[in-house]
What we know:
It is built from 12 helices and 9 strands. With 400 residues, the chain is α/β, with parallel strands linked by helices. It has 2 domains: 2-121 and 351-399, Rossmann fold (3-Layer(aba) Sandwich), CATH 3.40.50; 126-186 and 214-348, no CATH class. The strands form 2 sheets. It has a 7-stranded mixed β-sheet with strand order 1-3-2-4-5-7-9. Strand 2 (11-18), helix 1 and strand 3 form a beta-alpha-beta unit. Helix 4 runs antiparallel to helix 5 and helix 7 (212-243) runs antiparallel to helix 10. Mean pLDDT is 77; it is low at 1-9 and 239-250.
Amino acid sequence: xxxxxxxxxxxxxxxxxxHGTFAPRAGWTLDGSALTSxxxxxxxxxxxxxxxxxxxxxxxxxxxxxxxxxxQLDLIVSNAAENERFIIVGHSxxxxxxxxxxxxxxxxxxxxxxxxxxxxxxxxxxxxxGAILFGQAIAIVLWVAWLTLLQPLFENTEVKDLIYGFAFxxxxxxxxxxxxxxxxxxxxxxxxQQTADLPNGNYLFLRSTGDEAAAALSFAQFSLWxxxxxxxxxxxxxxxxxxxxxxxxxxxxxxxxxxxxxIVICIAAPIRYYDLIKQVLFADHQRFxxxxxxxxxxxxxxxxxxxxxxxVFALASVLGVAWIAIQAVVARSFxxxxxxxxxxxxxxxxxLPFGEHCLHHIPWHSTPGLPxxxxxxxxxxxxxxxxVQRWVCRTMQAVQ
Length: 400
């Protein structure tokens, strides 16, 4: 969709506008908005004719939708008219769309004069050390805790066996899926998904004071970090040392997985047959005399082991469920489409991409009548619009 302003000169410039998440009808992309009027005025002051194009995408908070939007942007730039020049403006995750477009290129296309990022979060990823084995440990702990909690609820032995078998099949599939995932090229997926590694170019980064979207993402990131730090010592010192052959360097993941499952069966067996063990040990307990107190103590210890194991694994399950739940929420808030990516990757939200850049920080707005949401100030506040105008003028003067 293209809208041309009546002012015309011999040096046209096209502004490509890209809205953010949940904003397919963003008012700032419409003709006559505060931002489009400011852009047209800046172009006119440099002797250029301003036109506007929009990338119409779903606005869903998913990386796949942003990828598709970046493909639309690529088509607009690739199919440009002769001598057509572009300045791309993205707000919030619309800036992420621009980032995915730029990452397709070794450098900024010659017909793109620059890009403006308004309140855009930049996602940095790296592989989480020991994530696969850590995820397997959580799966196994949850499985044993599940057995411990569910089996006492049923008197029927066949039902207990069914639960036991189903739980075993479930954890086996989880361990197998994680092992399969480890074969995929992690570095390639990090490169494809993160937005903090932009090529060199002419950029303007604007962010407003009190940006609630940035605060929410930062809180989600902190929650994930805190849950990981709280749960990792437990798993690394107890579960990992018990289930994972971490002291041998880099053991075969398949062999380690098999060892995990075998050890879990050995631990789960006394939990499964807790009632039977109790009957055998205490069927004739009234015949015990004072001389048998030593045996009683040993028998009680044998019974205590599965009880302690059950309590420990119940605690581990709480930590594991909390960690996985927070991981799922955080991964979704960043738009990651695959939950397992949240386990494998460490996430970080940054105000700027990697390297040396200049961030124009907009102070508390002073324009009357603006909404209270600071995330939108970068396309409505007078200070922000003035900063965009100055940058557009400098950009166009540099190529004249």
